[in-house]
Amino acid sequence: MLCDVKDEPVRRRLLGEATRLFAERGFEGASVQEIVLAAGVTKGAMYHYFDSKDDLLHEIYGRVLRLQMERLTEIADGPGTVAERLHAAAADVIETTTANLDDSKIFFRSMHLLAPATRKTVRAERRRYHERFRDLVIEGQREGVFSDRVPAELVVDYFFGSVHHLGTWYHTDGPLTGAQVGKHFADLLLTSLGAGHVGE
Amino acid sequence: MLCDVKDEPVRRRLLGEATRLFAERGFEGASVQEIVLAAGVTKGAMYHYFDSKDDLLHEIYGRVLRLQMERLTEIADGPGTVAERLHAAAADVIETTTANLDDSKIFFRSMHLLAPATRKTVRAERRRYHERFRDLVIEGQREGVFSDRVPAELVVDYFFGSVHHLGTWYHTDGPLTGAQVGKHFADLLLTSLGAGHVGE
Amino acid sequence: MLCDVKDEPVRRRLLGEATRLFAERGFEGASVQEIVLAAGVTKGAMYHYFDSKDDLLHEIYGRVLRLQMERLTEIADGPGTVAERLHAAAADVIETTTANLDDSKIFFRSMHLLAPATRKTVRAERRRYHERFRDLVIEGQREGVFSDRVPAELVVDYFFGSVHHLGTWYHTDGPLTGAQVGKHFADLLLTSLGAGHVGE
Amino acid sequence: MLCDVKDEPVRRRLLGEATRLFAERGFEGASVQEIVLAAGVTKGAMYHYFDSKDDLLHEIYGRVLRLQMERLTEIADGPGTVAERLHAAAADVIETTTANLDDSKIFFRSMHLLAPATRKTVRAERRRYHERFRDLVIEGQREGVFSDRVPAELVVDYFFGSVHHLGTWYHTDGPLTGAQVGKHFADLLLTSLGAGHVGE
DNA sequence: AATGAATGAGCCTTCATTCAT
DNA sequence: AATGAATGAAGGCTCATTCAT
């Protein structure tokens, strides 16, 4: 074994290829055979690192959830007015999502294919994430900075639709960078909440 | 397909059960056996009415696309200011989607599973639909009624995310009716375009 | 379909080859692939007639249990003294077993491989069979024809060991016919019960 | 195997757990992984002490055969009348078997799974054991103490069925001790040979 | 003496689809 | 218009075993 370093190349490679193939063909459309072939190992190796094909999917969900929660928490708990923080959080989740478009495609498309227990865990984690985001909206509404004509919960469902949707239309080599789309979408969100212009 | 008769109970039932099962378990998760069992017929009957399992899915896409395009055209080409028409179209697509939630779940979740040729057709049809919607936004921006800070194309991508997303969180027996959600989301859209209050 | 006759050749052939191969290599040692190959059909055909490999085994158990119970009932409820009936039943089960040696090999060797629910059913059926046999012994003991030094239950366990064991040593092309072995074993049983000479 | 040391805890533990698991789930149903896990070692360790999974099974057979041959030889070559010695040998093999029920279950259930060469060796050893037992019967028949109506060979096959069968019905926590069953079965054997009452 | 990552063959099962009837 | 037996390919997964360390 050459790797004393903490990263396990085989495991890492398997996860990478699985992500790519699940995004490309769907979870059920990508066979374990294809994944291990792409990763240059055998099935046995895959089953040494992962319990099942489902486990592979679960790991992908875990990675996404962890990353996004970390970023949201850092921004939401950081400095700035609530409008600035909500704008930053919205722009950031859009940009992060465009930077990991495969993860996003898998996320919303394959939730129903997870084993029930796993799905429950993922949904709970996702709900916590949504709630943290929603709390930002509520905070602004309480301060009177945001309109409360539409319930905060619904605003979040509305906005995250656009995140969800990115996988359907966004292309890395398209006319707009992820950051640009993020800025625009965050603007739309803030405007729809009746907040004035935010940012530089 | 040889049948011109509108009322084809077997065909209808097959399509209905397929829609339900595809939404419930995903296209690949629902077997032809399960579908024909639920419809109370045999496999032979299904293959008499449909060319393949893929054809079943294609029909569902066709039905959704046809219905939504009809409704959009009627509203967009109808009377009223552009703000009123955009608001109505937005509210209507939300309400129609909540009323046919299974169709919506299937639509966004299974696109990648269609045979390439079919997928191409569906995408083209969908693009036409988006363009008609986008034209309404452009029309408003030209008139100076809507802000043009965010490109019309992007506004449409932003908004349709929320439609796409409905299948993930909306429940018929939840606290809000589809019409209420439609009104709220249309409000958010119009507000984000800087349009004043549009209402009944 | 050429078969209007009630026997289904494919199903029958599958069961026959499965019996042969399970006896030869054990249930786990014989693959479905080998069975269908021997039967000259494909796996799909097998799964059309049987739910699983386990189901195949279950059917074999059912066949044996049904046959033996029928024969025992007919003899036990028939005419003759209790000694004659016990002798006849004992000789018959030995002869029937030698005539279906593969069934017997499978029966005692694979019980532990049945699905728990199936195993329970088989055991219950087997117990009923044993009880009917035991009742004959008890009947003779009550009449004073058989010694009651050894409990009837234990006599049955003792005797059925010899049935069980046949698969281990008996060969169709050996020096003794099944009928001869049956006569000898029935004699040993009756003698061990202290009954005088029975039969012609 | 390089180790002459008698006390090899790891090897011993592996054999013990293998015996338990083979009896519980069958040879093919118990995986090497399960065995090493139960023994608290790793696969590497197992393959250090045993050549293969088959070797593990072979060792179990060897242990049983060695033990039973030793006991039989001691009794058969010991003092007492032939009736006494046969009774003692029969009772002893029953009692020894109930005391090592797992070994017995494995013995008769897994013979067909041994590698052909190994199986041949085991069968030869078993045959020698049977022959020594049979010689006792012949000795008694020659002396005129036992009836020779049934060939000695067949008497042995008859009796060893009951030994074989113990694994199917005997339970340590049942109403009878192994010694009691041994006494009863030995009585049945002797009686069936027409020998008068033997023993205290 | 012992590890554990990796192999590769094989296993049971599922499934969309076909075709004679 | 409809049946249902049969196909054939592929799928996820398990397992005994090896080998560098």
UniProtKB/TrEMBL annotation, chains A, B, C, D:
Pfam families, per the entry: TetR_C_24, TetR_N
Lineage per the UniProt record: Bacteria, Bacillati, Actinomycetota, Actinomycetes, Streptosporangiales
InterPro entries with a match to the protein in the record: DNA-bd_HTH_TetR-type_CS (IPR023772), HTH-type_TetR-like_transc_reg (IPR050109), HTH_TetR (IPR001647), KstR2_TetR_C (IPR041490)
DNA-binding residue intervals: 31-50
Transmembrane segments annotated in the record for this chain: none
Name assigned to this protein: TetR/AcrR family transcriptional regulator
Keywords: DNA-binding, Repressor, Transcription, Transcription regulation
PANTHER family: HTH-TYPE TRANSCRIPTIONAL REGULATOR RUTR (PTHR30055), HTH-TYPE TRANSCRIPTIONAL REPRESSOR KSTR2 (PTHR30055:SF175)
Every HTH tetR-type domain range: 8-68
Domain of life: Bacteria
